[in-house]
Amino acid sequence: MTRSTVPPAEVPTTDVDLYSDDQIREPYETYRALRDAGPVVYLEKYDTWAVSRYEHVREVLKDTDTFSSAGGVSVNEPFNRQLVGTTLASDPPEHDKLRGIVAGSLTPRALGDRRAAIEEQAEQLVAGLVARGEFDAVTELARVLPLSVVPDFIGLPQDGRDRLLDWASAVFDAIGPMNERAQRGLPALAQLGSYIGDLVEHGTVTPGSLGDGVLSAAREGRIPTGQCPALMLDYLGPALDTTISAIGNAIYLFSRYTEQWDKVREDPKLIPNAFNEVVRLETPIRGFCRHTTKETSIGGTTIGAGQKVLVLYAAANRDERKWQDPETFDVTRRVGDHVGFGFGVHGCAGQGLARIEAHALLKSLAARVASFELLGSERALNNVIRAFASIRVRVTPIGA
Ligand code: HEM
Predict the structure, then answer these.
(1) Phi first, then psi: what are they for 80, rounded to 5°?
(2) Using a 6 Å cutoff on CB, does residue 145 contact ligand 1?
(3) What is the domain extent for residue 237?
(4) Apex CA 291: angle with CA 30 and CA 40, to 5°?
């Protein structure tokens, strides 16, 4: 990538590649260095400005007039062009209109109707795994609920469901730079594009589902039909890998910090807070971009108009200026204001669903598992999502 901006001499710059395998495996020391270097650090390799302190991440996310999503949230421009028309890549007032299209499916009441079925599914899944004693907490636990709940929620036909994980992972790779990893995902992205195109063309979504809500909006003239694929992508893209990552990260952390699991087990009311703490400490989405609409200043550093700014949620969530002992996993920490689900108008639209799934699994586990023993783990390498490909655990059932 060519460097097109020359930052003023006083602005810290770095040639680190946040998207290399090594940085994806172990990003936290670099995040600390970025935070310590200043409110904004220029990433030479990507001609992008990284914001990593909590205070400034919130400032940027709040000021949608200056830090626009309309030019896309990816590091690379070709994929930004593919994001045009999504809620994610829009600014108010258009953003608010788009977000409103399917808001009805995501209200606490609408989600509440699904809760009992999700909890029942979690119970059955967890009972079976605990009876076996050893299992893979990614492939056999974390993936199972999202892969059944999300496609039903969006209203997808059975055909194509087996490709959803590959497609979702390609979407998140493409939100990084167009490195080799992202390029390898291009065929999957093309398939996803034609899958969504077919859904819209043939209207093959379940009546009453979120996808049906998108198509109805077009039929009623509230959005052009041509915008339906983008709105489907909004929900198909981020609903799986994020939740799977968070559930996997939870089991990994509880197997390493067994005393934290003891607390949850003894007081399951801690589960919602514990899940927030997981999302803070091992933030599933590392960072998304914004583009500056005018010259502006972040923490006293001036940035010109038309610049790309990388907002590092994962770094802000470990900022020692905000959090006491940020590296410590503490399920009792006051953690409600982490930015793992974003902040401001683009704050995660699907977090209610993600929370229902994760809370249900943790509740079922808390009723059955005395402790987790980590047998081995393997990291998944994705440009944006921090996750494991595999976490093998042995569980000790309560009362064993
Ligand atoms: C643990 C799970 C999840 C995490 C950590 C997560 C994280 C995020 C983050 C950080 C953003 C902010 C994007 C920005 O600032 O530009 C976001 C937005 C979004 N998320 Fe999630 N997400 C999760 C689950 C889901 C699920 C299950 C769905 C769908 C059902 C979903 C749908 C969306 C949508 C549509 C947006 C865009 C909202 C907008 O632009 O107004 N997410 N998510």
Answers:
(1) -60, -35
(2) no
(3) 13-397
(4) 35
The tens digit of pLDDT for each residue in 113-164 reads 899 999 999 999 999 999 999 999 999 999 999 999 999 999 999 988 999 9
Q: What SS3 state is found at 72?
A: coil
Q: Which residue among 290, 351, 382, 386 is best mutated to probe the pocket of ligand 1, counting the most ligand atoms within 8 A of its Cβ?
A: 351
Could you please report the per-residue DSSP string of 136-204?
EIIIIIITHHHHHHHHHHHT--STTGGGHHHHHHHHHHHTS-S-HHHHHTHHHHHHHHHHHHHHHHHT-
Lowest-pLDDT range of 7-16, 72-81, 389-398: 7-16
Instruction: Please count the structural domains in the chain.
Output: 1
Nearest CA to ligand 1 atom 39: 346
The pLDDT assigned to 335 comes to 98
236 lines ligand 1 (CB under 6 A): no
In a domain, 6, yes or no: no
Assign residue 21 the CATH number of its domain: 1.10.630.10
Ligand 1: atom nearest CA of 347 is 12
Q: Is 243 in the pocket of ligand 1 (CB under 6 A)?
A: yes
Atom of ligand 1 lying closest to residue 234 CA: 35
